[in-house]
Backbone:
């Protein structure tokens, strides 16, 4: 980057396109070397967790690029979030290079370098701001398109059961209602939950995921009162189950949920959700005979 | 991250203060500011903020820290449980 010389700092990053581009952008004004570790296109933190951004990879890159011949010092600045995979003492032992942990965010790097390679407390903590949460929503929605399609097909196959058996209109209506409930559940669990995350009551995500559908179902119910049908009740339960599961799934996207915590809430949430889902399905199947 | 807290009392993080040499690595690498230095030794000041990423244990020169590291991800657990159910070791992770 720029016109690096023998005393310029060496910064290490992952070969995840966004990480690399961000680093280049933030360091546009700085003369430095960038050492890219092959993480197979995965970002720094995930790669550190999965072992691709590891001590051995860093050592391998140091040797392969023969960076020692290019610079007069023996210091590597690595992103703080690779620390789960990179052990500073082992890198030193195996390659002779000393590791300095840089800030979490690439945007703090210029200030970090100016301050003689020291990071403030704020630079060392991860955040999960509204913007950072909103950016995750499209992927969450996209990944569930298949589920919606699957539910619609399965719903259509089962929707004919009932006294209306041969009414195509009734079958389509039932399928559409199911599809809408699923879509609303997805909206609740993968849009409202991420946005409202810090303000939703309860620590466990599956419980957080129950609040939005509860509100939606209430509003819906009040709106059409007194024409509340058994079918609508079953669909409300289904919507809540889907939202709750999606909320629990969102733990994988946050930077503060621990595996032990996720296991804890899954052991409680999944049995309840499975039971509710079966209940919703049964009631939905029986509904046409009752309504 | 004081505004967002996960479930209390679930983390597997443990620090053996007797072994600690007070190098401060854990304080540098922890993304949730779980540690602080008191009287030249590391202490855990916010245990429940720990997300078990394993950075501290990985960078402790004297192995004073132990934690079961991993990713807090539902899909990974489902795959692990399915794998155990069907004796298929291929599926142990998510993305």
Residues:
């Amino acid at each position: 980057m720029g016109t690096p010389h023998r005393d310029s700092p060496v910064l290490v990053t992952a070969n995840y396109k966004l990480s690399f581009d961000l680093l280049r952008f933030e360091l546009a004004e700085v003369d430095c070397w960038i050492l890219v570790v092959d993480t197979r296109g995965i970002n720094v933190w995930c790669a550190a967790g999965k072992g691709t951004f590891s001590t051995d990879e860093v050592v391998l890159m140091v040797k392969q690029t023969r960076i020692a011949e290019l610079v007069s010092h023996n210091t590597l600045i690595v992103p703080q979030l690779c620390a789960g995979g990179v052990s500073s003492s082992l890198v030193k032992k195996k390659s002779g290079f000393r590791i300095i942990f840089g800030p979490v965010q690439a945007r703090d790097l210029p200030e970090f370098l100016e301050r003689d390679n020291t990071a403030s407390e704020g630079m060392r903590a991860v955040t999960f701001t509204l913007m950072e949460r909103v950016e995750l929503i499209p992927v969450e929605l996209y990944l569930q398109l298949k589920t919606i399609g699957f539910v619609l097909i399965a719903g259509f196959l089962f929707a004919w059961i009932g006294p209306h058996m041969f009414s195509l209109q009734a079958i389509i209506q039932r399928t559409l209602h199911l599809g809408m409930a699923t879509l609303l559940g997805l909206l609740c669990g993968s849009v409202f939950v991420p946005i409202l995350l810090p303000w939703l009551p309860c620590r466990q995500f599956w419980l957080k995921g129950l609040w939005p559908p509860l509100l939606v179902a209430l509003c819906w119910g009040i709106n059409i009162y007194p024409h509340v049908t058994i079918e609508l009740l079953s669909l409300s339960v289904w919507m809540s189950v889907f939202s709750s599961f999606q909320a629990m799934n969102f733990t994988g996207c946050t930077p503060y949920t621990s595996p032990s915590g996720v296991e804890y809430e899954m052991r409680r949430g999944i049995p309840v959700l499975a039971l509710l889902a079966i209940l919703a399905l049964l009631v939905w199947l029986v509904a046409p005979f009752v309504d | 991250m004081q505004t967002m807290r996960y479930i209390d009392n679930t983390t597997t993080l443990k620090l053996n203060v007797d072994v600690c040499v007070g190098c401060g690595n854990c304080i540098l690498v922890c993304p949730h500011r779980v540690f602080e230095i008191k009287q030249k030794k590391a202490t855990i000041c916010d245990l429940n903020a720990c997300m078990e990423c394993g950075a501290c244990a990985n960078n402790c020169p004297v192995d004073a820290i132990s934690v079961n590291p991993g990713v807090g991800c539902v899909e990974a657990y489902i795959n692990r449980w399915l794998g155990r159910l069907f004796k298929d070791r291929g599926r142990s992770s998510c993305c």
In short: Chain A has a mean pLDDT of 90. Chain A touches chain B at residues 45-46, 48-50, 80-81, 83-89, 101, 104, 121, 124-128, 197-198, 203-204, 248-249, 251-252, 254-266 (CB under 8 Å). DSSP finds 14 helices and four strands in chain A.
